[in-house]
Design brief:
It is built from 13 helices and 8 strands. The protein has 299 residues and is an alpha/beta fold. The protein is 55% helix and 12% strand. The chain folds into 2 domains: 86 residues, no CATH class; 205 residues, Rossmann fold. The strands form 2 sheets. Strands 5-6-4-7-8 form a 5-stranded parallel beta sheet. A 3-stranded antiparallel beta sheet has the order 1-2-3, covered by helices on one side. It binds adenosine-5'-diphosphate (ADP) and shikimate-3-phosphate (S3P). The site of adenosine-5'-diphosphate has 15 residues, from helix 6, helix 10 and helix 13. One of its GO terms (cellular component) is chloroplast. One of its GO terms (biological process) is aromatic amino acid family biosynthetic process. It is found in: Plastid, Chloroplast.
């Protein structure tokens, strides 16, 4: 298979299918077929498109095991002309999840990133794909405080008390294996928290501030005390506050073992708005980046 990126088009040419054991009829009909991703209706199958875009990047050095996946599983489906009915978006996530689980040896995954970056949403999906438990450090703090909400803790004791509880939560969570942990957006600012998170693998969900502000404005700021102010429209309030926080935190987020940049992901999926990327696709990309981190660092 040859992958070609001509302009915005992403094309795959099936060159020598006989090497991969397809039957004679298939060879004859498809040995020179060009599959142009832009011709396929992949809007609802971004996960598939994500995988192919990785094949495209890696095809230069032929190191992408997913190319084999393409020949064995995807090409026959495309050939059948029954793509929409045959392809299950969750399938890729589960398959990648199984692969990554076997390399993790029970190490926890810590998702870090700004408020609203999707740590909880993506973390839940990720934990299922890895057959891990899911935990949210904010929920853990609230439970440890007998049900007192994060917002109430901020109100009663201020941010510094909350940070103490948060560190305690991360310490306890780090002692339990096989978990995906969605951390609070500010967990990265305390070096001691990294000591606990470093026992597992940290992944930064990098979402542009404008997208975060749009998301947060849609759900409101009641549960996020650091964004909750009285005046101004919800989007502007969220954006300005996120801007200040992100300036203080961007260096700390960069310490994560792996990063999933939604801007990069949207570009490879040819999506204009990062908010159009589904949580399943982001979770799949998290797995891809973890796998890359483990491979590059012999871990
Ligand atoms: N990929 C996504 N697509 C659509 N909505 C999302 C996505 N990721 C998160 N959301 C929504 O954005 C809001 C914030 O997400 P959440 O997972 O709570 O972020 P965090 O845990 O990082 O604060 C939630 O309302 C959630 O449903
Ligand atoms: O960024 C922050 O400092 C915070 C983020 C929140 O968690 P989420 O990132 O899950 O919203 C929560 O821990 C608290 O409101 C403080």
């Amino acid at each position: 298979m040859e992958a070609m990126g001509g302009g915005s088009a992403l094309q795959f040419r099936v060159k020598q299918p006989k090497l991969f054991g397809f039957n004679h009829k298939y060879k004859k009909e498809h040995s020179l077929q060009l599959i142009n991703l832009n011709d396929l209706n992949l809007k609802t199958h971004t996960n598939f498109k994500l995988l192919l875009s990785h094949c495209h990047k890696d095809s230069q050095n032929q190191s992408c095991s997913d190319i084999f996946f393409f020949f064995f599983f995807v090409a026959p489906i495309l050939q059948s002309g029954n793509f929409g009915a045959s392809f299950d978006g969750d399938w890729l996530l589960k398959t990648k999840g199984k692969e990554v689980t076997s390399c993790l040896n029970g190490r926890n995954i810590y998702l870090v990133g700004m408020m609203g970056s999707g740590k909880t949403t993506v973390g839940k999906i990720l934990s299922e794909s890895l057959s891990y438990l899911f935990n949210d450090s904010d929920d853990y703090v609230e439970e440890a405080m007998g049900g007192t909400s994060v917002a109430q803790i901020f109100k009663q004791g201020g941010e510094s008390i909350f940070r103490e509880y948060e560190t305690e939560a991360l310490q306890k969570l780090s002692m339990m294996p096989r978990q995906v942990v969605a951390t609070g957006g500010g967990a990265v600012i305390r070096p001691i928290n990294w000591r606990y998170m470093r026992q597992g693998i940290t992944v930064f969900l990098d979402v542009p501030l404008d997208a975060l502000a749009r998301r947060i404005a849609a759900v409101g700021t009641d549960t996020r005390p650091l964004l909750h102010f009285d005046s101004g429209d919800a989007y502007t309030k969220a954006f300005m506050r996120l801007l200040t926080l992100s300036k203080k935190r961007s260096e700390a987020y960069a310490n994560a073992d792996a990063t999933v940049s939604l801007l990069t992901l949207a570009a490879s999926l040819q999506l204009e708005d990062v908010l159009d990327i589904t949580p399943i696709t982001i979770a799949t990309e998290v797995l891809v980046q973890i796998e890359k981190y483990l491979r590059d660092n012999n871990r």
